[in-house]
User: Fold this.
Amino acid sequence: MNKNYLIIAIVIVVVIIGGVVLYNGDSTNNNQNTNSGATTNNQPVVKEPKQDKAPAFSLQDYEGNTVSSTDFAGKSLIVNSWASWCPFCVDELPDFATIQSEFKDDIVIIAINRVESISTAKGFSDKLGVSGKLVLLLDPGDSFYQSIGGFSMPETIFVDTEGNIVEHKRGIMSLSQIRSKVNQYFK
Assistant:
């Protein structure tokens, strides 16, 4: 009888995980105009989609310098929330460094560490070979992650030059997915 309960529990867990994965999929904001069907003076009324502004932040880098979101005004940004305990970050952070190298001044990639000490965060980014290749910031209060409504790891927002979030991606992306999104949003 215990074997049946174990099988049922496993099936329930798999169904729940599958539902979460399907629900979270790709949380791309739809940036296309939508027509509400209403008209004014026989002209269709076009509603602009709501675009969320990227949250403001003021955090310290590894050298103790304060870095603020306003430092990047007018630039295209990719802002990633990561931690050393996140197994997906091991792959994704080096891919972000590769993209930063490829696209140089077209974008700025900011990687914000969640609640870890400088020794843990820096040790991890040094081990991955990304220190000095990305803007690496520390968030001891986890304020950035909370401000984007984070609930998975990693989480990444793509921000246009106007400061609008054009996509909020939950979960890992491959190098080709990141490159494709940069070309889609910033080229």
The first strand starts at residue 34 and ends at 40. Residues 82 and 120 are 12 Å apart (CA to CA). The two ends are 60 Å apart (CA to CA). Helices lie at 2-24, 89-103, 118-128, 143-147, 175-186.
